[in-house]
Amino acid sequence: MAKKISIIGAGNVGASCTQRLAERDYADIVLLDVVAGLPQGKALDILESAPILKFNSRIIGTNDYQETANSDLVIITSGSPRKPGMTRDELLKINTSIVTEVTRGVANHSPDCIIIMVTNPVEAMTYAALQTSLFPRSRVLGLSSVLDGARLSSFIAAELKAPVERISPCVLGQHGENMVIIPRLCKVNGKPITELLPEETIARLVQRTIKGGAEIVELLKTGSAFYAPSAAVAKMADAIILDKREILHCSAYLDGEYGLKDTIITVPVKLGRNGIEQIMELKLNDEEKQALNKSAEAVKQLISSMKLG
After folding, report:
1. Residue 106 in contact with residue 9, Cβ under 8 Å?
2. Which of 33, 130, 138, 143 registers the highest number of CB atoms within 10 A of its CB?
3. Tens of pLDDT along 185-231?
4. Among all residues, which ones are annotated catalytic?
């Protein structure tokens, strides 16, 4: 029986995710949005590419959560996009109510699914989904450093003229200004970038990664990134649907790991058919621990300001 993936939100990220996952041909896809005709039209357009690209995934566009019933995986992209000059934190009030409502619909119709949160601020929205769904923490996670690591890797590859597949980034913490990039654990062919690049170059690449989303928002003027985010989500979906048990850096709820409790930040996790199957604890030095604690505290402040019921 084919796996089923539902994608909530038919904007650029949601539609791109639908296309990328349909072309993988391992699951049927449901694209849901509150706007009548929008998910139906995009789903139909993608479906009509199937004879050209030779995939057989069934794709449905809908405005009804009933169509998402019994999904194995649900990807939530619904929410207001970040606009020029808007911080991720400013999205909090707008998107909390959207994500809470969406999560109720998802949990009611697919009580055994795994949720990947894409909506920003992603850690706070992942926490909102976890609290609303009442799912175990292993089944609610957020897109974060699969994307941030890809951005950093692309910058390192360009700087060193190295193949991207040889680069292993290490990005922890909060998605955004409080991101924690650990250069000594970012490697090219197994060698730390601290041995390959001067300190000032590394600092420049780190800052560009931290501001990676904002850079694209400023360039686009009327939108935000979706090609790289959808590719990152698809990589996470691969690990879950195909049970790869792959180690990826995702936003996860911590309950004592790294000395942190009741917060959600990016850490390396083993991702498989049960969702987060293991949280991997890296050996961090005192400076790195301090940066991670600061990042976690910023997330906690966001979470406390949401005032979830």
Report:
1. no
2. 143
3. 999 999 999 999 999 999 999 999 999 999 999 999 888 999 999 99
4. 175
